[in-house]
Design brief:
Number of helices: 10
Shape: globular
Number of strands: 10
Number of domains: 2
Strand content: 15-25%
Order of helices and strands: EHEHEHEHHEEHEEHEHHEH
CATH class of the largest domain: Alpha Beta
Length: 300
């Protein structure tokens, strides 16, 4: 297509939560429970709303878009470049952040604002984050119920794919397309959130070690990995004017790949595919369907 189409990390701030592996904080000492909360990550925003405390959220990042009510809230910049004046003006009694914004945490605390840093770098951490945020907000029972629901749905998927061969999979989180073909991609490597998603969904990552978490892979590298399935994750289609048919057409030019020859390149579209939060079961179910279409998944 002759133009550059790329997103290294699909939504800034979404996958950042999956890039660091630090233990989450325990809830900070806030008198009572926080009533004015600012969220510095889409995944944390979704968690707050899923816990039923969305009415306490007074500010979010420019990348927060779900649930739809979030779009009407004041924006305070991004998770890496927040507007501290805007945050202070909202008079929050708690700001929730992800580990990648650790420097911002120190700045916020210097301004006298309570901060809760929450790790969501892998599947277990996402589950733990539900409990931690719920405890901080004084809704522990809701947190326990939400976590249980998520765990049950993940267990259902794992049960469906148990006993079936694991599919060698490449998870693409961004790419360059030029001249009508895929030229290079950024893929989810080992020790990433998506590595865990693949394991639950019945896949195995073709990138198995010795590289960055999200390495750039050339066309030659793609040929060397030769995955059985390619999952191309695309979010913000309307906002970025993506043509999904054009994306698929770009992959079709790579006939040297087994996944292309066997028509097993799937474009998985939607913000839920890139946010490691409470919509995790939807993500895992979508991946499992793409990896194991032979199973009886029923109708939507």
């Amino acid at each position: 297509m002759g133009r550059f189409l790329s997103t290294v990390i699909i939504i800034a701030g979404a996958l950042a939560a999956a890039g660091c592996g630090r233990a989450s904080d325990r809830p900070p000492a806030v008198p009572g429970h926080p009533q004015r909360i600012v969220s510095l990550a889409p995944s944390l925003t979704e968690t707050l709303f899923a816990l039923g405390v969305g009415d306490r959220v007074v500010g979010v990042t420019r990348y927060c878009a779900y649930p739809p009510a979030v779009r009407e809230l004041p924006k305070i910049g991004g998770h890496l470049d927040p507007n501290f004046e805007a945050i202070v003006s909202l008079e929050p009694d708690l700001v929730v952040v992800i580990p990648s914004s650790h420097e911002n945490r120190r700045r916020l605390e210097s301004l006298g604002i309570a901060v809760l840093e929450v790790d969501q770098h892998d599947v277990d951490a996402v589950l733990d984050s539900v409990s931690i945020v719920a405890e901080a907000c004084g809704v522990g029972e809701r947190g326990a119920a939400l976590r249980s629901t998520i765990e049950d749905r993940l267990a259902d998927v794992a049960s469906m794919v148990a006993g079936f061969p694991r599919v060698r999979t490449l998870v693409v989180v961004g790419h360059q397309i030029g001249g009508g073909t895929v030229r290079s991609v950024w893929a989810a490597g080992p020790d990433t959130f998506y590595d865990g998603v693949l394991r639950i969904a019945g896949g195995v990552n073709v990138i198995d070690g010795g590289v960055a978490r999200y390495p750039e892979v050339s066309r030659e590298g793609l040929t060397a990995f030769d995955p059985e399935v390619v999952l191309d994750l695309v979010a913000g289609v309307e906002e970025r004017n993506f043509d999904l048919d054009e994306v698929l057409s770009g992959w079709r030019r790579l006939a040297e790949l087994r996944a292309v020859r066997e028509h097993r390149v799937s474009v998985l579209e939607g913000d839920h595919m890139v946010v490691p939060g409470p919509r995790l079961p939807e993500m895992v179910e979508a991946v499992a369907r793409a990896l194991h279409p032979e199973l009886g998944w029923g109708t939507e």
